[in-house]
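Recall the central idea of this unit: under ordinary conditions, the amino acid sequence of a chain determines the structure it adopts. In this exercise we apply that idea directly, starting from the sequence alone.
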Amino acid sequence: ILDLLPEARPILGHLTSGTSRWLGTVGIPPLSARDGGKSIWLNVSSLLEGVQVDLPAPLGKQASRLRDYNLRYHFTPELPGIEMTYGNSLYVLGELEKGAGFTFRRAVIGLSEGGYQIPENGIMIKGHWPSVQIDAWNEVIKRYSGSGGKANPAENLARLNAIDVAFGYLDIGGRKFSDMQIQSAKEDAAWRI
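Accordingly, the structure predicted from this sequence is:
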C-alpha cells in the first residue's frame, strides 16, 4: 500500500512492517454522473495477514492475526476524500487539502462503529474503546508528530478541534480509571473541557 500511496510512508512506514495480499478496485462513473458529484475512486482492502502494526491496544496487531482494512480514496478535483476502516476499532472519514498530500481539511476519526458525519471544520475524534493506556499513546503521538513529509502529521494534529470519547478503562501513569468520558472542544486556540 505504501507503494500506491507514497504520501502515507512517513506515518505508516514507522507503524507497520511486513507484507500482505491486497485487493484493489477502481470505480469510474459515467461522465454524466461526475457532473452530479460522483467521482472516480480507488478502493484497496486487505486482511493484513503478515503485517505487524506497532501501535498500542486496541490498534496494535501481530503479523499472524487477521484484521480487515479498507481504504477508499475519492479523486475529486476540488477536495479529495478518504474513507478508511480498520477492524471495528478505527474509522476515518474526511476531506483532504487539495495538493497537500494527506493533510486533512476536515475529518472525523471514529473509535468504534457508528454513523459518523464529517465536522464543519477541523478534525474530530469520537467514539468508544474498551481500554486505553495514555502513556503508550503519548509515545505514538511523539513519533507521529515528528515524521514530516507530505502527510504533514503535525498539521493534522493542530487541526484537531473536538474530542468526544469514552473508555471502559483509562490508564494514565499507572493509575486506572473506569468508565471515563472526555468531551472537549477547541475555541480560539484554547481547549474547553
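The longest helix spans residues 134-145.
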